[in-house]
Predict the structure.
Amino acid sequence: MQFTVAIDGPAAAGKGTISRAVALRFGFRHLDTGALYRAVGVMGGDPVAAARALTPEDLARDDLRTLEAGQAASRVAVIPEVRAALLEFQRRFARREGGAVLDGRDIGTVICPAAEVKLFVTASPEVRARRRWLELGGEAAAKPYDAVLAEVRERDGRDMNRADAPLKPAADAVLLDTGDLSADAAIARACDLVASRLPGKGA
Ligand code: DC
């Protein structure tokens, strides 16, 4: 069975948590497409060459989850040749046998416009910045909340306003605002949606 779940949305909206849980529940494979851009961003040198030469080892680096890697990813992600170099791998992953969940910014709009399920996960910049700041250690974090909020806004602006594959909900995406939802409640909604679209369940 081929079955694609496309999960898009801005940084720290909860895409990763929801994607991993959906993949686990339905036995699908999961691809965090942000990791591709993060790996290209932290490799330095020519980003187009880095994207074309990306290996599984690059995706296993332990420095991909930092705020700096996120900013570097967002900067290389505006380059059309970088996006083009990563496109085929993502499409192949999406159509693998057994089902796939991909999370990113342009999965439902560009990578998998025919995905069986499209979810756009969002929350206000303040809610998302607070989550990131707490992940970094809260009061004990090296960065104050205001600095994290400024970075979230900067990254949103770049991701939403770039010319190639900007972050926006697909016309047929289901919106999920996680601002007032617990992780468990957000996961339950996503799983209900996927279950309702599985073959034999009707649309
Ligand atoms: O989801 P993330 O925070 O790991 O993504 C890091 C950056 O990579 C994000 O700011 C923009 C870019 N990105 C993208 O342009 N397209 C994707 N499908 C995934 C990420």
